[in-house]
């Protein structure tokens, strides 16, 4: 699995130490981790407003004007999935952690074995969450549940992600986006992936979705799509 981890600590030595441990956890667990470190909660928040696709956050609590706890409260207003782990030298804040669904408190100095165990739990929790597609557009990131996506369409260097509510336009290839989807998504034509859960009717040249939209399919693909729907549902 691929995980994006944020480390936020105003002590450079602590941030470097936690970053190194998180990288070591990735190697030990066989996961690919991308880690970005921040020296203040304000710096993290500025970055997060443009890129929200973190999976795990390791937050020091005692920082500057904006504490790790206040930062977590802001994040939780719009993101209930990211795994938040607090790092602190004091146990006094533990009751507040329930308000932001903190996974764990790590007491300084952080033990390698304890951190590894907590990151294992975080990864397990993420596996139980609703699967989402990270959609990056207009300098922001939305986490779009896969079961809300009707179909995807290639358009030059972009992918159009069609949901019932809106259409997202993300700079990416259809091939690389397909790798992040579930088996419910079927490449029905070179430029289209359709969520088979939304197919209401299969015709010779297209499938008709439950909302009435038509998605083109390749010649001779109708029978294959029909078999896939039977297999999955």
Explain what this protein looks like in three dimensions.
The chain has 233 residues and is an alpha/beta fold. The protein contains six helices and 15 strands. The chain has helices spanning 12-29, 41-48, 68-76, 112-128, 174-178, 222-232, and strands at 2-8, 32-38, 56-60, 83-88, 104-107, 132-137, 140-145, 149-155, 158-163, 167-171, 185-189, 192-195, 199-202, 206-209, 214-216. Strands 2-1-3-4-5 form a five-stranded parallel beta sheet, sandwiched between helices. Strand 6 and strand 7 form a beta hairpin. Helix 1 (12-29) packs across helix 4. The two termini are 26 Å apart. The model has no long low-confidence stretch (mean pLDDT 90).
């Amino acid at each position: 699995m691929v995980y994006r981890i944020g480390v936020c600590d105003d002590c450079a030595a602590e941030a470097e130490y936690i970053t190194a441990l998180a990288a070591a956890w990735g190697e030990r667990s066989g996961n690919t981790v991308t880690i970005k470190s921040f020296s203040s909660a304000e710096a993290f928040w500025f970055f997060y407003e443009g890129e929200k696709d973190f999976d795990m956050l390791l937050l020091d609590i005692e920082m500057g004007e904006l504490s790790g706890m206040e930062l977590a409260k802001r994040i939780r207003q719009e993101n209930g999935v990211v795994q938040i782990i607090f790092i602190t030298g004091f146990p006094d804040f533990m009751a507040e952690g329930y308000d932001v669904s903190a996974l764990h408190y790590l007491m300084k100095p952080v033990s390698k074995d304890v951190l590894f165990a907590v990151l294992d739990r975080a990864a397990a929790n993420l596996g139980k969450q609703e699967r989402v597609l990270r959609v990056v557009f207009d300098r922001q990131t939305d986490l779009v549940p896969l079961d809300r996506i009707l179909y995807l369409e290639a358009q030059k260097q972009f992918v159009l992600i069609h949901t019932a509510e809106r259409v997202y336009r993300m700079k990416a290839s259809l091939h690389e986006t397909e790798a992040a989807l579930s088996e419910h998504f079927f490449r029905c034509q070179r430029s289209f992936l359709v969520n088979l859960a939304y197919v209401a009717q299969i015709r010779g040249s297209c499938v008709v979705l439950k909302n009435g939209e038509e998605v083109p399919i390749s010649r001779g693909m109708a029978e294959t799509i029909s078999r896939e729907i039977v297999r999955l549902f």
